[in-house]
Amino acid sequence: MSPPVWTTVRQLRESLAPLRATGQRIVLVPTMGDLHEGHLDLVRAGLPFGQVVVSIFVNPTQFAPGEDYENYPRQLEQDREKLALLGICGIFAPHAQEIYPQGESTRVEVRGLSEPLCGAHRDGHFLGVTTVCSKLFIASDCDLAVFGQKDAQQCLVIRRMVEDLRMDCELLFVPTRRESGGVAMSSRNRYLEPDERERALALTSALAAGRELLLTGEREVPGVEAAMRAALDVAGVRPDYAELRTIPDLSHPQRAEGRVLLAVAAYVGRARLIDNLCLHVADEVSDVQLLDEHTATALQKRWSGPT
């Protein structure tokens, strides 16, 4: 059966109230729609922990001027069909005026973490992200919100917001789902022409180049970043960045040590794509999750099993 669609905050709250009255947890999966298997992985990850609400809202405040807000794919009925197979509680699909009513003037800003990487190349992006997420968290009064690690910086920014504002909401970060060739799944992949889809593999290659150099014993960050950027340049894509940052503070070290993020962003045709790898660098180099405390295993332990 197709899940119900709520378009107002009042409808959302009234529909969730009976579930809360019986002690059930509310799990929010924030999306902008045009759902692919990566999004559905987020839903599947949240299902064991409570009643899942998927928000579908193309948020105007996180798009910089000249970006693809107007053209961003909107296909609510197709998304609803995909979600019907998973057994979610419902869909929150508000109009822009419901989230940003006339005369509104409030923004939620996380300084520091929102400034490097995508923040340096997308003016106002994270200001829009934190503002809309805070509104969605408040509207749903969710116990848990689920995000994908493909947007690693976003995960860390939201984590900081939740901690700073003392929000009573857990966060679950889910590993990146990839297409058969290795490209990270993204709604913007639909912009790619066949030859561009091949060139999009450059992002995966760049991350592999950085990882390989670390595996050989290189610890100087400029050298690792140069190898990543070279992989992007060879493919003829237009890089925004190819950087190594520390986790969780996203500082830019001179030497790689501890938990680090290899992060790349590049334009392939008209599609701006991002990707990353999380590694622990010591005498050996190993693949890790973004943050151990935001995995399903850690959450289950804190909650003593799903409700």
Describe the protein in words.
Strand 3 (51-56), helix 3 (76-84) and strand 4 (90-92) form a beta-alpha-beta unit. This protein folds into two domains: 5-175 and 292-303, HUPs (Rossmann fold, 3-Layer(aba) Sandwich), CATH 3.40.50; 190-287, Pantoate--beta-alanine Ligase, Chain: A,domain 2, CATH 3.30.1300.10. The chain is globular. The protein has 307 residues and is α/β, with parallel strands linked by helices. It has eleven helices and ten strands. The mean pLDDT is 96.
Itemize the secondary structure elements and their pairings.
Blueprint: E1 5-6, H1 9-21, E2 26-31, H2 37-46, E3 51-56, H3 76-84, E4 90-92, H4 96-99, H5 118-121, H6 125-140, E5 144-148, H7 152-164, E6 170-174, H8 194-199, H9 201-215, H10 221-235, E7 238-246, E8 258-268, E9 271-281, E10 285-287, H11 296-303
**Architecture of the largest domain, according to CATH?**
3-Layer(aba) Sandwich
Over the alpha carbons, how many angstroms does the gyration radius reach?
A: 19 Å
Supply the number of structural domains: 2
What is the mean pLDDT? 96
Strands in their spatial order, largest beta sheet: 1-4-3-2-5-6
Return the CATH class of the largest domain. Answer: Alpha Beta
Taken as a percent bin, the fraction of beta residues is 15-25%
What's the β-strand tally?
A: 10
- Model regions low in confidence, pLDDT < 50 over at least 5 residues: none
SSE run: EHEHEHEHHHEHEHHHEEEEH
Oligomeric assembly: single chain
Please give the share of residues in helix. 25-40%
Helical element count?
11
CATH homologous superfamily of the largest domain - what is it? Answer: HUPs
Dominant shape: globular
Largest sheet: 6 strands, parallel
* Protein structure class: alpha/beta
In the CATH hierarchy, the third-tier topology of the largest domain is known as Rossmann fold
